[in-house]
Amino acid sequence: SQQGEEDPQALSIQEGENATMNCSYKTSINNLQWYRQNSGRGLVHLILIRSNEREKHSGRLRVTLDTSKKSSSLLITASRAADTASYFCATVPYYGGATNKLIFGTGTLLAVQP
Amino acid sequence: DTEVTQTPKHLVMGMTNKKSLKCEQHMGHRAMYWYKQKAKKPPELMFVYSYEKLSINESVPSRFSPECPNSSLLNLHLHALQPEDSALYLCASSQANPGRGRETQYFGPGTRLLVL
Predict the structure, then answer these.
(1) pLDDT band of B91, cuts 50, 70, 90
(2) Measured between CA atoms, how close is A105 to chain B, in angstroms?
(3) A-chain residues within 8 Å CB-CB of B109?
């Protein structure tokens, strides 16, 4: 399976603390993305980092990418109860063609306690 | 409008039934996707349509039959399903032309399917 792995599987923190999730993948990639899913509903795109980038920021989100280790991390700073959700990394393999095949990691369930 | 809609929200069907899931988007996206997600698992790609043509079938059993009647609509026809097919079925869309615009996928809220 090409599926990536994330750790931890579950994370519980207090509001205001930072949350860090890690993702490891198996193949060469074009880019890596992070998505959020609330309560088994649709996924929402959070941030994308390309294979030639090492770090990216968006609001309270910081993503790093280490292609030599085939790993990425997502840091959410100053967490809020509303950040409670499942977070998935998704890789786009180095792949030609007209479509965008996403391979999702196993996910991290984040619970932010008020 | 960045919304992908899916109907129905919930569906219960017997193993001999025929039903269809529907997905619609009005973002002008020409790539549309079906994913299957089991509880506590990540989404798994089933099918990809690009410019209304099937471009990827991830070895999905023939009891699942996709259809893309136009650039805004995507259907998934279900027939003779098994209880293990119970899952959340997610639709997504993206731009299709090569380039940065196609990289982000927009997901619908999903249809939760229970096969009895």
Answers:
(1) very high
(2) 7
(3) 41-42
Q: Is B43 exposed, middle or buried (0-12, 13-18, 19+ CB in 10 A)?
A: buried
Strands annotated E in B1-116: 4-7, 10-13, 18-25, 31-37, 44-50, 53-57, 64-70, 73-79, 87-94, 106-107, 111-115
Q: Strand, coil or helix: what is A46?
A: strand
Separation between Cα atoms, residue A103 and residue A36, nearest integer Å: 15
| Of A32, A101, A103, A96, residue with least CA distance to B98 | A96
- Catalogue the E-assigned strands of A1-106: 5-7, 10-14, 19-24, 29-37, 43-50, 55-58, 61-66, 71-76, 85-93, 103-104
Residues of B in contact with A93 (CB under 8 A): none
Looking up tokens 């790993």 gives: A71
Specify the higher pLDDT residue, A95 or A49: A49
Cα dihedral B94, B98, B101, B106, rounded to 10, equals 20
First to last CA, chain B: 36
B48, B98, B110 member nearest A42 (Cβ):
B110
Rg of chain B over all Cα atoms, to the nearest angstrom: 14
User: Is pLDDT at B40 greater than 60 in this prediction?
Assistant: yes
- pLDDT at res. B63: 96
Closest CA to B65 of B75, B56, B51: B75
- Residues A81-107 pLDDT 10s: 999 999 999 998 765 555 578 899 999
Paired with A104 in beta bridges are: A90
Judge contact between A62 and A55, C-beta under 8 A.
yes
